[in-house]
Structures are given as structure tokens and as C-alpha cells.
Amino acid sequence: MSELQFNSSRASSPWTNNPVLVQLLGLSPVLAISTTLVNGLGLGISTALVMLLSSVTVSTLRTKINQRWRFTWYLLITASYTTVLDSLLQWFYSPLHRELGIYIPLICCNFAVLIRLEVHAINHHWRSTLKDAALTGSGFIVAIVALSSLREFIGSGALMADWQLLLPAYRAAAVISENSSASEVSDFASLLPAAFILLGLLIAGKNLIDNKLKENTAATDIEPIQRARVTGRL
Amino acid sequence: MQTQPSAIVISSPMQHSQRSTGRLMLLVIAACIPGVATATWYFGFGVLINIMLAASMAIVLEACALKLRGRDIRLHLSDNSALVTAVLFGIAMPPGASWWLVAMGIFFAIVIAKHIYGGLGQNLFNPAMCGYVLLLLSFPVEMTSWHIPNDVLVDGSSFSAFSLAGLRQSLMVSMPVFGSAQMSSPDSIDGLAMATPLIEFQMAGTSALLAAWDAGVSLFSRDSGAAWELVNMGYLCGGLFLIYKRIISWHIPCAIIATVTMMSTLFYAPDSSAIYGTPYLHLFGSATMIGAFFIATDPVSAATTVRGKIYYGIIIGLAIYGIRVWGSYLDSIAFAVLLGNFCAPALDYLCRPRIYGHGKKSRSVPTTEVEP
Amino acid sequence: MRLVNRLLGRRSDRAPYAIFGGIATDAYKTRSLRSRLMPVPIPEKLVLPLSQNLGVDAIAIVEAGDLVQKFQLLAEAGEPGSVALHAPTSGLVSSISNATVADEFGSQRLCIHLQSDGENRAIETVPEADYRALDHLQLLERIERAGICGLGGAGFPSAQKLSLGMKSGIDLLIINAVECEPFISADEALIRERGASVVVGAEILKSACLASNCIIVLQEDRADAIEALKKALENSSIELMTLAAGYPVGGEKQIIQAVTGMEVPSHAYPASIGVLVFNAGTAYAVYKAMVDGEPCVSRITTLTGAPLQTPKNFETLIGTSVSFLFDLCGIDTTRHTGTIVGGPLMGIQLPTLDVPVMKTSNCLIAMSAAEFPPDEPELACIRCGFCAEACPARLLPQQLYAFSRAHDHEQNLAHGLFDCIECGACAYVCPSHIPLVQYYRSSKAEIRAQQRRQLQSQHWQRQFQQHQYRIKKQQDEAPHQISGDAVGPLKDDEPDKKNRSREDGDKTEAVVFSRERAKREIAEAVARVRARKAGHIASSRTDAKSDG
Amino acid sequence: MTQIFSIIVAAALVNNMVLIQSLGVSSLFAYSNRLRNAIELALVSFLVIFLASAINLILYRGLLAPLGLEYLALLCFVGVSSILTLLVLHSLEKYFPLSMRRQRLAFYLIAGNSSIIGLSLLNTASERSVVDCLAYSFGAAMGFALVLLAFTALRQRLDGADVPAPFRGAAIQLISAGIAAMCFLGFAGLV
User: Fold this and answer.
1) I need a surface site. Which of B161, C137, C178, D113 has the fewest CB within 10 A?
2) Does B211 touch chain D (CB under 8 A)?
3) Taking CB atoms and an 8 Å limit, are D112 and A111 in contact across chains?
4) Model ipTM?
């Protein structure tokens, strides 16, 4: 399955070919950072930005990139953008940067980005690449927003708490509230296992919707994503 | 794709042994009786109420899940596996846990940890322990407060735990629907009432409890050391019964007990802290026995090859001791068993026995040449 | 004591080795052993399948309308795997046509239909004056002529088995009288009453395969037979060994393990480790062939089961119908729910009673609802591992089951599916009543079909390649002929191969059909197809190789 | 010695790369679910993670930090990891027949493994001595490899399970990973 996904150069789309929900790529930051919606948004937007920039770069440089070393090139390109982004965030959004911590530099080896470079950017014109990266990036944002709002809601019963973090640092400092920690309903949702499980349930929900949609549109019997090999009665 | 073999031809063997899964499960439940009875004697009706609550919810949830999955409800309920899950879960829960805690745990156990995997036989993790660990992580406070009716004063008057009033009290604690218990929560936790003596040892140090420990066992004194000791004896008896009946194999419990014994002997330090206590304390002072005989041996999620079982037991034993002594969680069995479950498929794969006719040195050289 | 011996490196010869797994079953044997071995009255009609082991047909040498006498050769062995067939009684060959045979599908096979004339006239038999005077090749030839095959159940032609052993040399001949399956008592009855003949048969077999040792093996709870055999063995070099009761100690591989401690390598014959195993019934047939000069026309068959009023062992003529035998025992049809040929664990259930007894039919069981309750519904596998404990091949049936359900044949092969001997011990102990053996059989069939498809596709690919080659050759030759150029025959192979590397680099597309490119394209297509079709098998191979 | 041991245990179990810190999670799901292949991946990943984070550590402490070039750290780290992956693969290839050698995905999963960069970054940020950091890297790499193996076997078993349709594939694997992460949480405070 995985290799197939990897090789699939299916058109990217936030729903049918979502990098996180369908291809299971770039899970590390998604799982770790999705504790609150604000964090999720922050990371999602940063990742999408890096994806856009590096896709365009790779696609413009595609004739010059050595085939053999292309993966190293991808890594270097994403790492450069990530470094720049990291510094910018540190300057302008330092509270958010502190929240996201190590996961900002880790964008450089996010597979959602790298695989898109490999599958699409390396052999397409930059215009098409731009569209592709935008779609994939939005898919990434959709996934991380969905998961983080779910987790935040279950965990603290609130949404968009600490929204000030999304403001530039000097302004955020002005509005930072005292009682930023909402009452905790359950610790569990903020833990990593909950992230795994909730993401699993999200994907299951998506599959359910997909199946329903497919039933409605056509009676054709194509398996979604996964080869389903067992249809036993037990 | 048809997975059932063609049913037209009745295939050999035509004879079967008279064992059935449903009966095996019932025997497992029966083997729990001595332990549960002792626990009830010491900790009051809360234990039984937990089990009853869990069992009824488990059956309802199991039926719903089967219905949703379009299976034959009666046939699959008859394997009694949901009951076993419920009993183990109920035993693990602190007496006096609120009904919604039980419901939540059982929901996770039956629906998420079992039916989402495809029902009995397919789940990778022990359902009861999944539910329990979920609760432990989500509600650490509630999960470590035990309600013991014996010595509790309600409105200034004390009463016997086994009187009707005691029962009523226990019910009210579990299900506030029946009326609110007039106890504030600190009252419901007394000195004896923590989950395991080891927890106390870890927290309170040695002084008071070791004294109680040395005082010996009495069925009627109802002190916590003796209580846990006898409860564990009960589960040990049940476990030996299961081994005698060949329902579980000896490998897993023996490996666990041996590992725990070895570790506690190795790290035994009489003077430092009670947590480095004697092997006896580690075996009988906590939930080791029920873990070794009833929870880790859940066949579905345990390793199935002989060597795999032994490694599985060793991993669990190490984890039990490690988490109990050095970890910050109070309950080690559940985590250890889940860890064992996590390793089990790999162990099964790596510890395949040598197949007949496959060379004594090389382990299972699979052949690909098949005569047509 | 045995332990001490082992520790000291000594082994008393009579101490068997342990086998893997196994199960304990109720024996149900005494009821059919109460009466003596009985001859069967000659039925009016005999049906003789040309293949007695449901393998390769023998070649009929009589025709419809021929009058035959008892012991007369009816069909001779042809291809390997077939055995000669003789007339069990005198009479008229009414036809040679299809009839239902004793397998679980009720399939039709070519049979000789013999109408008995009731006179039982026999052709003159020539007993060997002294079988000891014959060398082993002569013995082999006579055994082959007598149409003897393994009477234990598999029906492998004995002469072929012996000659297999001849190639590798045999140290040990095992006479298998362990009837580990419940209900069957044919060998025990035979040994109890004709033990001496069995011993003589064993000696003949021993000299026929040039074995240096011979052991007769029995289950230790069969006291009567052991006693009879001890008496018969008094002046013999043949040893006696008793094995603890259990199933399946009587399986070929298991008995070898129990007697010698050695294991038959996977996918090899026992002869490859210098051991041959013959059934006691086979030894008796050999005795009759040598000493009496009678070919194999009858066998001992156990008739048992609760619906039979007088269960017993019969010396049955081959070709007698099952219903005829059941009537002889007095069958209570109201209680009769089905019929098994063979044992209850490895036998097959007959769809109809109107089938003939064959050389391999050692037991016929009339089933009753009390002894064979209807199958309980299959529940989920709880991986209890009872099956793994019972498996004599030390497989992991629970894993094989999961892989079979998932059609994961790569894993099935890696876990030794084809080492399964289908003894049914796993399914017997399964508390969830899963018909495990059935799953394995269908998986094996699937794998074989897959491999056959693969071979076939390879074949067609080759055909296609040749076809392309021919077309190309014609095309190549055509212009030459037209232009009338006096060019010699095209030397296509060598130059093309040399050009290949150049051609690879050369990006200019030649419109001319290049044979080399066609070949390459085909090869690529072939590789793709092969990879797709046999993905499972292929990767399991690599898996297998590197795992070991 | 005891300290080093406890650091290794801490890195492997208590702060497990994958199930506690959520680094390199993609490797769990993206590669083949055959244990045979995963053993190779785990082995190579182990070597690369350990070696790369060790080299990165030395590079950072010895070169970048003294020269005040900390901002180049990320670029260096990714360069080191991809070059090292190639080197390790090539040198292993000499001794073992690796089936994954020719699979791009495996190479990417190793070279682009976020646990390498993550571990390097953690090391640069930590106050530990070089030896302790090395021990930590060793433990972390080991923890990664072990979880990868166990999880692949788990996936292999899930492959045959009769999972309800919507949960098949990714969903059930994630839920399993979640439960596994739950049990790793139990190690909290172990060291």
C-alpha cells in the first residue's frame, strides 16, 4: 500500500489525496503539535509555506538538479527555507515559536513536503507545481486543523484558546490573558496516544464518508486506498 | 473473495474434542472466583458492583457492536469473551469507581480495542487493559481512590460493610443516581484503601505498613497487607486451576513470576525502602498474580509460540518490576501487559518453532518448491 | 530409567523417541475386535476401480464380455503410481465403465464391473518354493506383479517404494502396525490372528529392500496383538517396539521420528534417510503373494460404528460395495447418519454408500449422531495455541489459519503450510470448532493453482516470443527476397547482442522492427506480468532464503 | 556506567523517539509491512540515526558552535544524514544482500527520517556531556528500531484481521500505534 501511495502521482487534493489522512505522511509534527488549534494552525501554515517555496524552487531548478543526488537537494532546499522561517518566527512570533519548539526545524524533513517534491515538483513546470503544492499544503492544514480542534475540544472544552499567539509577538504580548489555561476536562486528549487514536478515528470517519459517497454515486466496487483482503464472516 | 472453505465437502477430521471456546471462557471466570471473593471480603461490595456493572455494559456493547457489524449476535455472544473482559476489567477497577468511569473503560475495551480490530481473536491488545490504561491516563485521581466501606464513618456512625447499609453505601458511591453518598472523597480513602500496598510503600515509606505486614495473616483483621496477600493467593489458586485444566499454558505465568522474583531478589535492599522489598512482597503484595495468570495469558493478545511465550513473560515481568519500582505510575500490570502485547506479534514471528523435517540447525527454512 | 540411559548416552533399543505434539483420543476399537476376522461371502457384483489409490489408472487388459477366473490379471500397471489389478473371484466382465468411487466428492472413475458366477474358480497359483532363494530384484518383480500397494491408506505401489529405497540404501524397515486413529482395528485383528504370516511378510520385505534391520511397531495398549506378535517373533531377527498410545504416532513421519529419532526432511521420501515404512497389512499381502502365490485381491477392513449391530473385521474382496458390507453387519439405518472411509481423523466422508472397497480402504465407519455430533458453528480463533501443541509437524496452525483467511500465501509458505500432513489434530482440539484442515487444503489448492498459472504463463510467453521471432524473421527475409539480394542467412543473434549496448544509448528511433528490441519489450512485459502475478510467491522466496 | 545505562533506557523507552516524542512516525506506516523487510530498515535506520546524530553532535559542538554558525546547523544535519545513509547502505551492501537497496522509499525513509534531525537538535540543545549525548543517541536509535520492528509485526498481523471496512488500513494502524503509545507512557519516570 505504502509504496503504491508513494509512487502514486495522483493529483493532490485536500480530500481524496490528503497527505496526512490518506498518505500518512508527515505524521510526526501533526501528532505532536495538534494539542491546540492555535499550534496546529501555526505549524500547518508554516509547513504549507515551506512546501510552496521549496516546490517552486525545486521545479525551477529541476534541470540543474543531479538525478542521483536529488533527495539531498530536496533536503537542503527545504532545510534552507526552514532555517529562514525558523528565524523569522523566532523574531516575530516568539511565543508561538516557543510552543512549536523543535517541530519548526523538523519541517525540513517532513515527508508530506519531500514526497511532493519527488513526485511532482521535480518533473513539472513551476506553475503546475505551485498549484500542486498549494493543494497539498491546504490538505496538510485541513488535517492538522481537524485533528487539533478535536483534541483541543475534547481536552479542554474550548477552541482557539490562546489565539493571541497567532499575532505578531509585540502585539501578542499586549493581549496575553492571565487565565489562558482553560479548565481541563481530561488529560488524555493532550497526550500523544490520544493523537494517534483520534487521528485513526478521523481517518475512519473519512473512509466512512467516502464509502457512503461512493455508494451514492456508483455501484462500482473499487476498494478505497487499502487493499482489503479479508471479507470473512467472523 | 471467499475466505470460507467450500462447505459442500465435509472435511476431516470428523471428530472433535469436547472443548468449546464459550466453556473455556466460563472456566476462566470460574477461576477468578476465589480471588474475587477474597477481594470482596476485604474491600466490600464495590468489587462485585464493578464486575456486575462492567459485565452488563460489556454484553450490551458487544451486542451493539455485533449488530453494527452484521454478525450473528447470539452465536458470537456465546463465546463469553466479553464477559471475561468485563470481569478482568471490573477486578482491575478500584472499588467504588463511578459508573461512568466503568462505562467509559468498557466502551474503549469492547468497541475500540476489540471490535474495531474485527472482534474476538483479532484484537492486538488486551481489551480490558486498554480500557483500564485509558482511564488511568485520563483520570489518574479517580482511578487511585478506593472506596472501602468498613471503617468509614457516615454521619458519625459506622456500620458493617456487609450489612444492607453497607451495600447501599457502595451502590451510592458507584452510581450516584441512587442518591448521593454523604461522604467527601478524602473520607473514602483511608489508610488501607489504596490500590496496592506497594503504592503505599512508595508513598508512605516503610514504617507503619511493614509493622502490619509482620503481624501475620488474619482473615478477620482486614488489614491491607493481609488482604492483598490473600487476594493474591486466591488468584494463584485460580491460576493453578487453569493450568491444571490446560486452559492456559504454564509458560507465561512462570516466566513472569520468575522474572519478578529474580528482579526483586536482585534489587532487594532491606534497609533502603520498602519498594525494594522482598520477592514475597512483590509477588503477593500487589496485583502480580492476577496479572500473571489472568491478564497476561489472554491468548488472543499474548504470544503463541512456546519460546515466544517465555520471552513475552520475561518482558512483562521486567516491565512490571521496572514500572512498579522506578516508574511514576502506580499500577504496573496494565502497562506491562500492553507492552507485552505490543511485542507479541514480533516475538511470534521471530520464535517460530523448527518445523518437522526442517534441519535441526536452521530454524524453519521455508520451502518454496511445491510439488504440483 | 530411560532418562538415565539417555544421560549416559546409552539407549535401550526398545525405547522410542518422543514425537512432537499429538493428541489423546478415545479408541473405540474393542467393539470391532470382539469377533474374529471373518471372510466375506462373495457378492454378486464387484466394481474394481482401475486406480486403487485414486491416482493413475492401470491399463485394463480384459474387455467387456470376457470370462475371468479368480486371481486372473485384469489390468496391469502402467505409469508410475498405478498398480496391477486382479480378479477377486471368477465371473463375467460385464462392462468397463465409469462408476462412483470412494472419495469425498463422489466422483466417477473408470472401473471394471465384474459379475460373479458364484463358482470362485481360481487359476492355478504358483507359490514360491523358497522365497529366501530369490534375490531382491526378483522379489520386487513378484511384489509388483501381485499388485500390492500400501494398504495403510495412501496406496503407494509397494514395489516402487522398495525400488526407491534401493537407490539410497535402507538401514531400517519399519512395519507399521500402529493404528493410531480411533475405530480402526484391521491391523490389530490381522496381527492377533495371523501374526506369524505378517512376520514372514516382513522378512520378505526386509530382504526385498536389503534392509539391515527391521522393527515391527505397535501401540503399547494393544495387549493381544503384542502377545501374538511376541510369539511369532521368537526365532526372528525382527524386533518389536511399542509406542505410547496417541494420535498420530502411526503417521509415517511420526513413526520414523519415534523409532529412530530422525526426521524425514521436508519434501523428501523417508528412503532418503534410509528408512522404509510398510503397513502390517502390506506385509501380509506380500506374504500371501510369495508363500501362497496369490495376488492382492482382498484386504482386512474394519466395519464399525454405533449403527452396526455386529461390528467386526472382514477379509473383504476388493470391489465389494460398502452397502453390502454394512448389510452383513446389520445396519440400523435410522441411526446411520453418514459413512467414513478411513479413520475419523483423516478419513473421508462418503456421499453415497454405493461405492466399492478399494485396496486402501482400511476402515468403514457408520456414523451416528451420538458419536459424530453435527459440526458446531465455527467461532473466532482465540489463538489459544492448543492446535500448536497438538501439531505433530510443529507448525503454528493458528498462524496458518490467519494467513489462509487473509490469502497471504507468502506467509503461508514461510510458515510451512506444505509441511502440514493434514492429520487433523489441530482441528480436533480447536475449541472454536474451526475446520482448520479444510482451510489448509483450500490454501494449498490455491497456491498450487497459482503456481500452475505461473508455469502456464511462462509457457505462453515463450510461445509468444517464438511467434514474434518467426514473424520477424519472415518480415526480415521478405524484402531480401524481393530485392533479390544474395545475402546469406541472417546471423541475427551475435551481431545484435553486440549492438545491444550501442542500441541502448542510441536514441534515434529506427522504424524497422528490431528483433532485439521486440525481445526486450517482451522480456519486460514478461517480467511485469510475472511480478504482478506471482508477487506473493516471489517475495516469499526471497523472504525464505534470507530468513533461514 | 549505571548512568549511561539509565540514559540508554531513558532514551529507548521513557523518551521513545516514535511513541513518546512522535519523531519519525512516517517510517512506521510508510514502509513494507513485512517483518523481513522491516528488519533491514530497522537495522540501517539504527546505524544511520546513531552515527548521524553522533557526527552531527561533534560537528555542532566542535565546529558550528565555536564559529558562531548555529544557524547553519539544519543544513549541515540534513547533508550529513543523506550522505551517511548512502555510505551506510553501500557498505552494508558489501556484506549483506539488502533487498531494500534499490528501493527509493527505504532510502528516503532513512535519510529523511525526522528522528535524525530531531535527535541532533535535541542533542545540540541539551546540556549533557558528549558521552552522555552519544549514549542518548544510541538508546534513541535502538528504541526507534525496536518499535519499528514490533510495529511492523503488528501491522503484518493486522493485515489478516477482519477489520470493519472504514477502519481498514491507516485507521486501525494509527489506533494500534495509539495504544502502543499508551503503554509506553507507563514508563514515565522510570529513569
Assistant:
1) C137
2) no
3) yes
4) 0.84
